[in-house]
């Protein structure tokens, strides 16, 4: 398909099965943009729109010039010369040439690098992008003016890209002053494995067959729980304060007598571990002070009520002793651990429940299901969902977490092609579908999300992955802002985050996790590079909620009360807020050019030139080398001549 530009003489040739360097997908068609739409300020001489299966990609051709050149940007034909009847009558006129002096754009999103969406022929779902002064018309299927959005960057490889696919109801637009889109102050976040002295090594016999709904292992501020591949559903409990090499002998464990389906620590009591088994029972274990010294065989409490195997369990974020569990019987049940009884049973699911999450205020419970639905419950008011909407299309797994102060739901799952995806749903309108989504790589494991409400960072990884993805989630478009990723040297079995009090704020550490490897458990610190580390970075460390203390009891919550966690500052007493720090005077890295290029007279320049030449040639008053040679004495010269004469005779 040839495209010829008569002004510049450029010929662009494209084939329908050829992949351009900006896209991995084959080309479906190409079109040339009118000259009046070019950005002449950067000497753009040609722009071609490449159509692929899912994208419209603008490809711009620039001539590198320091100033605008009339040769590179000649006048371009524009307008009409008369009605068609004049041509039929034999008249021939030329179109007037218009100078390219005013840059025009194709619309409010002309600065976006990619246009991504599904095409629609419905007049109600079309945005019309018209270039002034020409008859070229673009149609992009979306229901709002912000349908243009960035997609995979040209340099991206497998993995999460820096863009997202907008939904039919909402998309992303970028301002002309920021063509690449908004950036995050956490974009350069760095993940660092701490010193080997903090590692736990020689961990043997880990279980690799935990269900997909289980995180693989869990940790709190004091200890970790790791399932072992030993009959009886045994779990090892390790103390964070006791790093080093584990003994070769067997470790004291918790014996559940059945295979482990899921387990988690009580957020308000670091000594309570709750374990769900294949026998549809939930067991609560009490870890003695100082850690396990012998194997435990009798749980402190057993909860029964489910009729099938349990999927997952989640503690309430505010009420102590309140637990939610999901099961193969397609119900979600709430338990009062203090009394050991079931208090609520939720219905409405049609298939396997992949994951569930409590809202930040503790009022609502959200679930993602294999039937392709995302549901929202108010357990104290109804056993049926109060909202329901379309979720991930794939059936391989999913996770859900609340973000942006409970305004949105972040769901990780799979699309219809079994590719990992991130979806963002509005908590007030699940029926309208995802407001934004981020494409991901192809991998069998589900991305497990962790969300930090203080920084709005979503940190995701899967079991068996080596990469940890980090996004800043914002309530405004583009919603997903990608930050630097952390790459591990070997695949990990899980990643669990510790309380915020474990972070070293002096080193601008915003999150700390423990990473479960093949035979080791190693701490990982996520730090934000800052210059003035002697000050407390209050823009990165706002007051954090004390979520490890309960706000109310389970009985109070069930009776209709709500509570909120108190907040504390992480600032050490000897540090000053960076917002209150004295402003530094700008330091000039290099001396001004006037120091090197001082104005000198012609006589000074001539004298400096002659001095430099003399210094290079050397001092002319110095004697020649042969003048420095010393001669012989006269008597020695006579003896030498006599000896030569005798030798000749």
Automatic annotation (TrEMBL):
Main location: cytoplasm
Subcellular location, record wording: Cytoplasm
InterPro entries per record: Coronin, DUF1899, WD40/YVTN_repeat-like_dom_sf, WD40_repeat_CS, WD40_repeat_dom_sf, WD40_rpt
Ranges for the WD repeats: 303-345, 346-378
Domain DUF1899: 179-244
Cytoplasm among keywords: yes
A GO MF label: actin binding
Coiled-coil parts of chain: none
GO cellular component terms attached to this protein's record: cytoplasm
GO biological process: actin cytoskeleton organization
Keywords: Actin-binding, Cytoplasm, Repeat, WD repeat
Cross-referenced Pfam families: DUF1899, WD40, WD40_4
Family: Belongs to the WD repeat coronin family.
Functional note: F-actin regulator involved in anterograde Golgi to endosome transport: upon ubiquitination via 'Lys-33'-linked ubiquitin chains by the BCR(KLHL20) E3 ubiquitin ligase complex, interacts with EPS15 and localizes to the trans-Golgi network, where it promotes actin polymerization, thereby facilitating post-Golgi trafficking. May play a role in the maintenance of the Golgi apparatus morphology.
Protein name, as recorded: Coronin
